[in-house]
Amino acid sequence: MNYAAEQSVLRSEFNGSRRFSNIFLAGAVSLGGFGFFLAGLSSFFKTNLLFFSDSSGISFIPQGIVLVFYGTVGSLLGLFLFLTVFWDVGSGYNEYNRDNQKIILYRKSYPGKNRELTFTFSFEEIKAIKLRIKDGINPKRQLLLRLTDGREIPLNGIEEPMALNKIEEEAITLAKYLNVFLETE
Prior knowledge:
The protein is an alpha+beta fold. It contains 3 helices and 9 strands. It folds into 2 domains: 2-16 and 90-184, PH-domain like, CATH 2.30.29; 21-87, no CATH class.
């Protein structure tokens, strides 16, 4: 998250699914799925449709059917991943406005009725900024907006885990800006 303080507005923007790792994964899954599909079709037509291997000798029942099925599923999954990257699902911003005493959380989702999600909270609803840190094989570092009714709203995006000192600095900045307590878990 990058914070830019302008007069009395603090805004943080973050990326969604439009990252190189997701593009690479979508391409790899699509190519693999298409390869499986062509291998299954090669076994059905008894002719080689792949340039790097001869799969025309595979019997269509049951291996060819399974290859076609896995190829179809892999290609559809790759298409879904490409569309998720294209739509940039998960991107958005958080805006903290002292003048209006409002917090606006904006996120992009999948196309449809709820493509753009906007949540608005007043400063009076905020109890604390919560920092949740879990280390280990799958580290999790979350910055949460803790409301007076007990709800905890995530403030950071879905990108790779941030450095510990960076997320702590952001938590302190937000807690000072909103004049609330900073809690850790």
